[in-house]
Amino acid sequence: MSRAGHEVAVVAVGPGTRGHDAANAIDGSSLAVVVGGDGTVNHLLDALSSRAVPLYHLPTGNENLFAREFGMSAGLPRFLAAVERNRVVRVDFARCNGRPFALMASVGPDAGVIHRLDAMRTRAVGHAAYVRPVFEELMRPRLARLTVTVDGEPIVEARRGLVVVANSRHYGLRIDPCPMADIADGLLDTVFFPASTAAGALAWMLAARCRAQFRFPSCRFASGRRIELSADDADAPCQIDGETGPAGIRSEPSGRVEWRCAVEPRALSILAPR
Hints:
Elements: H1 19-26, E1 32-36, H2 38-49, E2 55-59, H3 65-70, H4 76-85, E3 88-96, E4 99-101, E5 104-107, H5 109-119, H6 131-139, E6 145-150, E7 153-166, E8 188-194, H7 198-209, E9 220-224, E10 226-231, E11 238-240, E12 243-244, E13 249-250, E14 257-271
Parallel strand pairs: 1-2
Antiparallel strand pairs: 3-4, 3-14, 5-7, 5-11, 6-7, 6-10, 7-8, 8-9, 10-14, 11-12, 13-14
Helix pairs in contact: 1-2, 5-6
């Protein structure tokens, strides 16, 4: 970038770094370039959403779903061409119990894998880092009884399974539970997969990988601006954008825990590569 005549400030982003350093660097900048994975993008969402600074993702993570959504790559020629073209688009992001996410939030075994990985106190290095957490989750899956409400209308009531709230159509390993999700339509899509065992949850993931999940009437789908989830297990795990998500808010006197997701339409600026 500096060779192309642009002034560059490099700031570390992620767990253990000071968020205000990134926010200060963004102030007065014309572009925020994130080098890393989806988690790195997630850590910058709060700072970017309050400033009219576009984002470009140079992907170096495991899945790089955000970059995939917009056709971004780690190749410098495409990035520099995007800088010269300077086509900025506005897209949605959302919040789950106040925490921002750009891609998805979920409660269930997939979130359990993320929590187990985080508990190992090591950063993921390739997909191999997920082998142990996946195996442990298969042995003891997190499948709470879930209730899902979309814009005030219940679509699932106290059923065991897993739920995904999607702002983007992309998901890890190209499973894509909500392939019709549109990151710029002002809505969140949610899908519930009923399952009481690890084998049942795995079968749903395989169905989603084959784009066959909606052939089964027990798979519940809806879209709306506000998605509310609740679980009967206070330890039910949540993940956002492949990172450990917020804890559920305990509801009295039921003792259930809740997550409230809401879309913020066109709140994020993106430098489009094409």
